[in-house]
Automatic annotation (TrEMBL):
InterPro entries given in the database record: Cyclic-di-GMP_PDE-like, EAL_dom, EAL_sf
Record domain EAL: where: 126-380
GO molecular function terms noted in the UniProt entry: cyclic-guanylate-specific phosphodiesterase activity
Statement: the UniProt record of this protein carries the keyword ATP-binding: no
Record key words, sorted: Membrane, Transmembrane, Transmembrane helix
Ranges in coiled-coil conformation: none
Keyword field contains Kinase: no
Record's protein name: EAL domain-containing protein
PANTHER family: CYCLIC DI-GMP PHOSPHODIESTERASE PDEF (PTHR33121), SIGNALING PROTEIN YKOW (PTHR33121:SF70)
Organism listed in the record: Paenibacillus rigui
PROSITE patterns assigned to the protein according to its UniProt record, in alphabetical order: EAL (PS50883)
Pfam families: EAL
Ranges that cross the membrane: 6-31, 51-68, 74-95
Amino acid sequence: MMREDFALEVVKVIVQLANHTSLLIVSVFAVNRLSVHTPHWPILWRRMGTAAIYGITLLLIVLGWLFIQQEPDMQTLLQAGVCTVLGCLLIYPWLHTTAGSWKKGPSGPSPDTEAVLDTGDDFSCSDRLAQELRGALDRGELMLHYQPQFSTESRHIRGFEALLRWHHPKLGFIPPDAFIPIAEQTGLIVPIGEWVLREACTTNRLLQEAGVEPFVMCVNISAVQLQAPFFAEHVLSILKETGHSPEQLELEITESKLIDSWETALHALNLLHTQRVRIALDDFGTGYSSLSYLRRLPIHLVKIDRSFVEDMLHSSKEKALVESIILLARSVGIDVLAEGIETEAQLECLRRMCCDCVQGYLLGKPMDREVLWSYMQRYRQEQFNPVT
């Protein structure tokens, strides 16, 4: 009997220790994860979901604590242990990601990596990026890089695509796929997008004033921007403000993101089309309604996704798809640009398929405005494209 009582006491001590430790750890992490500094609805809504998980976990652990307070027997201790373990299992993924973000922390820019902060599914890291992104534009941390596009046949420059970059003073270069989704979720993409458009148009106009022949300037547009009130009017206003010609602006929309804003997008794009602004459809072939887009939208150019280009030399099916896209687009009077060109073999294959334009590291890497000026001076003097 004494042996059974001793075993019962040992089990009780172990369960109490596990329960109290779990309660303390979950409480500390919950305070850290749910602290709100900027009351923005998308972030608050996501935190409400996180709060629900923590609430259920705390409820299970407290329930385990209540079982411990009852007359100690093996059944109640087993119930307490089960509640504690279930709570810990439920919260483990959130504890793991938060601990990972604490461990990493900001360690300053590194030349070997684009970003110190790994967002992944870590809510706290995403929230932190959202906080930092709010002031990034005012602090001058956002910049544009310009990647040239070329005629496939002549290799003459056709235009440039403006690519958004973010250099944080402590976190270093943060990749676009880490912060652009956050900008879309929080609505910050609207003012950031206006800045991108204004900056790109100004750069193109200054190049022309310096004697560079007119080129097309391509600017990526988010579906969130298309849904914003008076989007088309804002674009036309920026064109007028910067003195940029509408015919030399090409707005690039992503096929896979249009499905949620179809009617609004159609109205805005038709209005811009009547004002001679060019429209390009990015990632063509990866969405749900490619042919419908070609039929209903005022498209001037389609961009073949790099995933098709990467595999076309090794897969007859991929090659046939690329050739079919080119033939389809050309048959309805739409130009075609292939992305991700990295080898001469890819370029030659696309040339034989009569693809109009190409873009990729083989012919030109993205460059900031200062490098762009030097690049265009060399281009004017030599009238051929030097590899950058």
